[in-house]
Design a protein that fits this description.
Lyase 2-enoyl-coa Hydratase, Chain  A, domain 2, fatty acid metabolism (chains A, B, C, D, E, F), alpha/beta, 2 domains, 2-enoyl-CoA Hydratase, Chain A, domain 1, lipid metabolism (chains A, B, C, D, E, F), three-stranded parallel β-sheet, Ech1-like (chains A, B, C, D, E, F), 9 strands, ClpP/crotonase-like_dom_sf (chains A, B, C, D, E, F), homohexamer
């Protein structure tokens, strides 16, 4: 049985037909799921809890309402407080300290998605601007609907995207010219282009179909050995940031424990018996 | 008002209809823009100056004449002097020192394009061989015309490309097999293939259309906050070479100063007032 | 004249029409070329020898029989011995030591393909599962036939792929979402998809046509200066794992010796004389 | 005025004669300050709060009671629960996941000392075993009394030190042979040896004198510009883990904001006027 | 019972009074233990075998005869063959390939000492020149006798030390000025200086006393849990080459298996019962 | 014959009794050799020229006048212009860009000493504050006189040292606690302490004796093969910033050219003939 999840800006559901899958939804549809500080702090809590919840093996992340996955930062809320508002009595160096702390904490909330031990599939639709890109590049797999409108919006409000897009997008999409173009121009791009460059893996008819597909993929992944799946996520993320030699060694050390799982024999036996294996919780 | 630029092998123009955009052209059309040492030394000067010229916010780089962006190294000129010519009285270790100094200096001239704080868009056409690839991978965005003929030509003259292609191309194009194939075979590839693998972002009818498109994109980028644009270029290049964690931290430190720009409020206000923002020089 | 190669599980041939090309074939067609320990140890020998054989300038790797390049690990053989079988009297920490040694040695046998100084082209067909992916990502270029069926199969037997796929695939294919999807779902993918994401460079009608194309490409590469070709492979692999700055410096140091080859003048002269250059052995 | 600090296992005091200095003491003297889980979780809270408390500019960390700074892990408490105790129904791979989460969280609590933006001076005396080394290598400066008895004790209880000693000690003490010897032999070493190899900066007569010296040094540091001091700590830690080139660039970016402090002119003016400068809070 | 070791240039003994300790001696006293190729190839075999021999938990490495640990490369033997001798018909680039292969293989033989899973203590006396430094920096701990005469001799024969000294010495001794001075001047330094800068851990009266002390230290280390000892060596070497953050994570992953050893409870129980623990083989 | 050197703030001499040695002196004794911008720009020129001057094989750097090697930045000059002075009409983000460019250029001038291919020995005396530390950590070897007074002075003027000390000092001195203490406290330390921690290699009676000793050491180094000496400097600096594995490989590639020098046989022959070898210029 999954833990009890009760949050203010996020819903967490466990669809009956998707064993071991958690469906997280950004739940501020009336504001097009725009984020303010309390939301990203809460989001970190959500993914930190799911990371260690042994009833969860895969996660889908979507946005409530038909209009937007998220339009990004709620600029109005941001301008009414927080480090971007005026603290006129501080010198620029002191203001920089406050800004840095703020940015690093904000980044950490997004990184909670990457740090989550379970694979996360982002199912996006409608406006998916700014923070939507930061957030989804911290996820493992991205799907979207035909009506999606993506943009790395930050240069249009006078800043370099600082919550993850600039660090992660070049490692998610192997087309550095395209990454630079969309980050420097802030132009909108749609589903087809996102698919072509590899930002998303597939495109679906609408929001509902995208979420359904994400749940289906999550269910497939959740049916595999959780030892194998979580090891695979971890090692792929490590390898992205290290040389092949360091990646191989880390894999060897990781698997020296992981290979001692009962899941290997469970999987092999099920294979021979042509039935679905059952794996212990993790 | 932009600084005065007067060079021998390069023209630098400031098209009236493209505020804050510099158009740099390799200007040796009669030799298909082939490079010799004085040219790359001058090119470093061009981009070093543009990097700090506050009247410039984006740069287009093209080649004069209809035939070629550049055919690469002027082999004839190279063979008549320089470290590849015979210094028969030096032992191989001493010759190696001279060659290394020469290569590192040559590389540094190309890196001046990457180091330039303003985004650089390469607009290529016709023969774009050898050095053309080194040079354009140091640019931020690559466009080309239909008639372009690319090749990583170096193995055909008995050497491994050493001015940047082998270091940068695998990070510009996320298709390592293709990178190896074109680098090992030296075969020609055209616009369509370049687009498919992500080496260029778009293809245009001819040289003029390519340059026009590059200028248009540069003009768009130059209309954004220069604080945001230049920060975005810098952080993307840093992130390419570091782990995500190091990328995030560098971004946080960078933005602790950059977020104190007046451009954020200028951009936000213009957004509310539906007018084009004006940004101070940088 | 090439060295004499006589192996048990691999054939090594030198096609007359492909000078300087070695054709290595996995030779256990009756078991769909499934691997067990003696095979990967032998494979390391094959590639270590070819690496220093001066009669060899490019290598094609294929699988015997119509059904499979390789179906991966011979699970039956693996379960009858080796570290995955039960050593019930060891505590988990000690068992981990044995597993780690085993994995690191296994990885090293695959890395022999990457370490081989000559370019290796993998020509794949039919079932190409698990180890097929590990193996081919250690090669330089991948080609396949229409009937190929790829899968990163490991999660289906309860483990994270540990022989190289997770470390190398994200650096071979610049589409991190796709890499995660196929590694987490273990689903089959075919030739067309492999081509689209850049896992293979081209697709051919059948096994024979794929091998023919691989031999043709190998022959082309083998006709170039071996100093240039081997330097290109080495520098590209180094650059993949280092920053651009480190890549440039390494290239400069490497080429300070390599540029002193006679191949440069041989190539230049042949170019002027419109004839095929001949290069000394290496 | 400093924030209110009320903790269970740690005391936090603000000595009147040491402006801007916090004195943190491990407060479990009856058990020789041995640690159990609640303590290290609390310690993370202490240093996280101090890190952002603008009334604090330097920190001294000591242990209550005459006998020990800390004897390390409270093995008894550890064996009665937590991941080292038996969860006999889990397979080794699942147990490994629990152990890893536990170790990483424990490490993070120690890293809170390193992450704390203010310099931390460890004042050690008596038994300073195991965790004492992990903890003090995360501090910035180490002082000790003559009666100190240090040991990297972990191999004596059958494990490799995993909370930081093995990662940090080689970077704190530039004598790799000595580091290996004390880590592999678990032997006791005293104040004189610690001073000779550079593990501590100075040795004092007894616990009281050590703490007094630490407070004096902390007071000196706290009298400097907090912008300068905190920048210095941050850049030194960054430089330890990066190349000189990366260190220089990070410093340049960091200081582009930090140099805009009013502290520079305050410091210069005070220098001319021969009086003590006052710096704004940070 | 230890495996049978029978080598030509090395003796391997198992002193009765030092359980689990192997004593390796370079055995070419008549030539002051100078090395030629067959010797370093054999040395790699010795340490590769010892690395996996479960009867061995610590190793002492010394040189036979009173005069020298080793005088380094046998220059005479080296000049009579091998890649340094003249292959006058090869161009410098081709010669470079042969030299590089040769150097990398030679390095790998020395690295076998570092790669060996068991701690290695070098006990040095008399002439300990050139290769002696390369070799001993690959060991974990260095001891020497009063009569030792060290030198990084390579610049005196016209080359930069390439078998490990230049890569490892700066990480063994935290005094970069001293490292540069001895490497650039090739001057002799003695036991006292070596002790002062931390190159050796202790100095003994003569060869016999040094070996005795090394065996005693090895015996102490061999009495500890082999899981703990070998993990400590591995993690310290990894940490030397990585950031603290990467070191901590690797440690966490490593220990997730290693903490499941029976040695922890064996050690704890023995501690309570005041008796010497016994540990299973590894 | 050495090139002609004529500079404004530096003298460059070639002592007759020290063949191949250049003696560079900071020549502003009346201002205690305090630096302003024109000086560090000139210093870069000096070392860039010496780096490629084949008549120079080793360099000594000292300060004119009895009082100081250098007291560091000429604060008065700095406050009258440059980026630290007020540009009140720029926002903090724009000011940051100017500061960053300024710092990076300043750093690059100091790095010219490290980048210089020939070993540089700093001979220090009297006041050696702030920039003196930045500068001397970029040198290879540091000597000083008894009267020296060192300080990492920057925190006392409200800033974190940004021209190299914080990046290089932790890699020059293997005592991270001491480095932090002197950097955070800005306290003076003398010759004896500098020697004890390894910041300097030796201490001499006075300025003259220090310079004499530096020239003697430089003369010794200059008598060795320049191929060997310059390779040793380069590889040691590379190794400082890379893993042992990367260090070994770089060494192998470097030496594949360097070992083809005639210096090896010249050195060996001279050794046999008991005479001083002569080496070709480099």
């Amino acid at each position: 049985m999954a833990q009890n999840y009760s949050f203010k800006y996020f819903t967490v559901q466990f669809p009956a037909e998707s064993p071991y899958v958690a469906h997280v939804e950004i739940n501020r549809a009336d504001k097009m799921n725009a984020f303010f500080e309390a939301m990203w702090l809460e989001m970190r809590q959500v993914f930190t809890q799911l990371s260690e919840d042994s009833s969860v093996r895969a996660i889908v992340l979507s946005g409530a309402g038909e209009k937007a996955f998220t339009t990004g930062l709620d600029v109005k809320a941001a301008s009414q407080g927080g480090p971007l508002s005026s603290d006129s009595n501080l010198d620029p160096a002191r203001k920089a300290v406050h800004l840095r702390r703020h940015v690093l904490e904000f980044q950490d909330c997004i990184t909670a998605v990457e740090r989550c031990e379970k694979p996360v599939i982002a199912a996006m639709h409608g406006f998916s601007l700014g923070l939507a890109i930061d957030l989804s590049t911290a996820a493992d797999i991205r799907l979207c609907s035909k009506d999606v409108r993506f943009a790395v919006k930050e240069v249009d409000i006078g800043l370099a995207a600082d919550i993850g897009t600039l660090s992660r997008l070049p490692k998610v999409v192997g087309n550095f010219g395209w990454v630079k173009e969309v980050a420097l121009s802030a132009r909108i791009f749609g589903a087809e282009e996102a698919l072509r460059v590899g930002f998303v893996s597939s495109v679906y008819e609408n929001r509902a179909a995208t979420i359904a597909a994400a749940l289906k993929l999550a269910t497939l992944i959740a049916s595999k050995s959780p030892v194998a799946v979580q090891g695979t996520k971890e090692i792929l993320n490590w390898s992205r940031d290290h040389s092949v030699q360091d990646g191989l060694r880390y894999t060897g050390v990781w698997n020296s424990a992981a290979l001692q799982t009962g899941d290997v024999s469970a999987a092999l036996l099920s294979g021979l018996q042509k039935r679905t294996p059952t794996f212990e919780k993790l």
